[in-house]
Write the structure tokens for this entry.
Amino acid sequence: MSIGTSRSPGVQGILSTRADHGALGDLGGLGVHPDDLPDGLVVADETGHVICFNAAAVRITAVRADDALGAPLERALPLEDLEGRRWWQLTDPYGGIATRFAQPERNLLLPGGREVLVTARYVRTAPTGPVRRVVVSLRDTEARRRTERSHAELIATVAHELRSPLTSVKGFTATLLAKWERFTDDQKKLMLETVDADANRVTRLIAELLDISRIDSGRLELRRQPVDIGAAVGRHIQAHVASGQDADRFLVRMEQPMPDLWADPDKIDQVLSNLLENAVRHGEGTVTIDVAPSSSPRERGGVETAVTVSDEGTGIPEESMGRVFTRFWRGSKRGGTGLGLYIVKGIVEAHGGTITVGRAPGGGAQFRFTLPVGTPAYLL
């Protein structure tokens, strides 16, 4: 017995039964079985009895496949809407409007109140003919709930981070406008410098949020060109020295010759800036930067550029290392939004590289990132 016809495209039209499963066989002859699908798949025949109940459906519903196969759809999958109404009686897929072909995704409840995302497709042999198959897709809502919690946490953190500098900006500007003549030039300069610093803080936060949006949506654009990684490291060290750090605090070790590196120089500067600032702010002792070629695990005979930033501080606790590159992780209470390392990881991975964290030989934190090298294909 086949499921669907050539006039019913999509998954429904390429499924076929397999006797030893009591359900459906390979998808479209591709060697993919319903149990290989990540989402729950439930298929009922023209009589309303279940002929497919895949492994994901078993996991999501906690109903055994042997109990579901051959049972009426409404008994094998007793769904209710959020108002407690029985879903299959409400929608009546076999006896409802003859022009219907699908049910859009919606939240429904399983026995016990567990929430699932359900989509249904009605397969007909003719546009207004009888329903030959009802194909139901099930998804667990936990992943969506995690996303929603993450978004809520992001909004709360952003609101908190914006409140402090904006309060300062508003307070100082209002005070200056109301009582300009009462302040000395030095007092005015101090307040304006504070306003400028807080405005820069807001600007950085907005830039981080834009980066996160691009990383999460896969829209982070890279403008690759030759990058001198040694010179880039040197610029960042000079900037720290100019801001008051002792030049002896930094040690750069660079192997030669280095392979040509094609990357987005602005994005690489962002990665180096974040890692060096973390080492200076949160670490202690000497900050060591090692730059060296490294063999590529992805390509036989391939070469990558590896950069390692180490400090001699207390390091990162073992139990926290798995969370270092997540949003809002802070290694200490010394400020920051906790978004920097999340962005660093996104930038490195967008280049096709990897980044890891561990313990440095001196006991502090050690961050190592690798970037694939070589001229982009479009320039060859």
Residues 1-23 have pLDDT under 50 and may be disordered.
